[in-house]
Design brief:
alpha/beta; globular
Length: about 260
């Protein structure tokens, strides 16, 4: 049988993909992070499915659940918040399943940064202003950052930065980015993106930290810093330009 790593999306139950919901509906076992995955999603599981909240389980215990379900002949849904490709701790689970000979598949989900951009009503890549988005975090009590991936280094690029797991350390984020982006650089924090208690804070590097602290935001949030957040004067994209050559539709005469 197969373990399916399913991206549950950023928080709203209806932001799981159609493929994710259909996969969830046919799995006899579902492991989910109770502190992050909306309970409403569990209604998609079969009525007799075994539901396991992994919030208090370590990696060995989670692996044991996945292997046991596989050996019992059950497909398993492993629900992760956001998308499994970033900051999901999926890689070490896959490594354990490879060692155990358990097959798995991945169903992508809506990542938190995409939900945050939607809440801000902003495109993160703007012509001539910014075409690069860096997803990162900062070193703290968790796993240290690799050499060359600290904020001071990444900040030199001037690219739009999306920081996960950093709201508690907003003062440090601001201090490290100020020399590269300037106090007037647009910044935003979106907490609980897509959920009923979503909170959106907008400002600059000069004033975003006091807003975050006043709102009591310490987790389940992304910090976004970059000029594209407030870009207004920029050229239209070449994608829809009337000057752009376009292929003819089948059967149509060539464009003169």
């Amino acid at each position: 049988m197969t373990v399916y790593f399913i991206g549950a999306g950023p928080g709203a139950a209806d932001l799981i993909t159609v493929r994710g919901a259909r996969t969830l509906a046919r799995c006899q076992v579902c492991l989910y992070a109770g502190s992050l995955v909306p309970r409403e999603l569990l209604a998609e599981c079969p009525p007799d499915a075994r539901l396991v909240d992994t919030a208090q389980l370590d990696l060995d215990q989670i692996t044991a659940e996945l292997v046991a379900a596989h050996e019992a002949g059950h497909d398993v849904a492993r629900l992760h918040s956001g998308d499994p490709s970033v900051f999901s701790a999926v890689a070490e689970q896959m490594r354990r399943l490879d060692a155990a000979g358990v097959p798995y598949d991945v169903v992508p989900g809506v990542p938190a940064f995409a939900a945050a951009a939607a809440a801000l009503k902003r495109e993160l890549t703007i012509p001539t202003v910014g075409q690069t988005v860096i997803l990162t975090r900062i070193a703290q009590q968790a796993t240290p950052m690799p050499d060359g991936e600290n904020l001071a280094t990444l900040g030199r690029s001037g690219a739009l930065l999306v920081l996960h797991l950093a709201a508690r350390y907003v003062d440090r984020v601001v201090a490290e980015l100020l020399p590269h982006y300037g106090a007037d650089c647009p910044a935003a924090v979106v907490a609980m993106a897509s959920r009923p208690d979503e909170l959106v804070l907008r400002g600059t590097l000069d004033d975003i930290a006091p807003q975050v602290k006043a709102a009591g935001v310490v987790r389940t949030a992304v910090i976004i810093v970059g000029r594209t957040l407030a870009a207004a004067q920029f050229p239209d994209s070449h994608l829809y330009s009337p000057a752009r050559a376009r292929p003819c539709a089948p059967g149509s005469p060539p464009t003169p």
